[in-house]
Structure formats: C-alpha cells, structure tokens
Write the structure tokens for this entry.
Amino acid sequence: MRVLNVIRTILLLSPLVCNSVFAIEQPIVVSFADQPINTFNQQLKQAQLQHRGWSKQPETISAHYAGANFKVAKIKQFQGKVLTYNVSAADAEHPKMLLILSLQKQQNNWKLDGARLTWKCKNGQHFSTDRCSISH
C-alpha cells in the first residue's frame, strides 16, 4: 500500500520543469526502484559536522548523491519534505533516468529520506523499471 501511495504522490506532483537540456514534461512514473540511503546519510551527517558546502542545501546534497551524470531538474516542497528530481540525458547506450530524492530537515541538519530510481526506455511513454531492449 505504501508503494501505491508514493506512486500516487509522484503522479500528482506538478509538471517537471527542466532547463534547456531537458524538455518540459509531466513525468508519468509507473514503478521505481528504491535506492540505498544509509551509507550516504552517514556521509552527509559527517559532512554537516565538518560544515562542507555541499551538505547545506537540498540541491547540492541531491547533486552529490546523484553524481555527475545527473542534473537537478526541479526542486519541490511537499508535505514538509523537499523533493528533488534529477534527470540523466538519454543516449544510445542508456535510457533516460529519473532519480527522485526526498530530503527532510531535522534539528538543522538534512537527511535523505528516500531515493527512488526509474527510467524511460528509448521511445518509451513513461518512467518505469521495465527492461529496455538494446538495439545494436
């Protein structure tokens, strides 16, 4: 039931507005894969204790978790949390990926609440965890 609530939440969010690299679109997410967050939260906590710059704002925390292949496309506040949408560019070898991170501020420190990965296959209509066919 929790998964259905999360999917409903994602579907009800406003359109994903991206910079010039990405088209403006309404993401339709059919399914996603939960990603590990415990080790990252330990690193984040340590970085906050050391006052590292990347650990102070949801956008930079999100970029740090997602890595160089993703761009933060949108940040949205929702039910007391901050959601970030991180999009990778699709190429011939990989599908377009969407990484949705949920962050929550507790006692003046940020904590990653959830990380969900989904992708859109070439010519796909929605984001899901379906296998993509690779054409050679």
Q: What stands out?
A: The helical segments are 2-12, 38-49, 58-66. The first helix runs from residue 2 to 12. Confidence is low (pLDDT under 50) at residues 1-24.
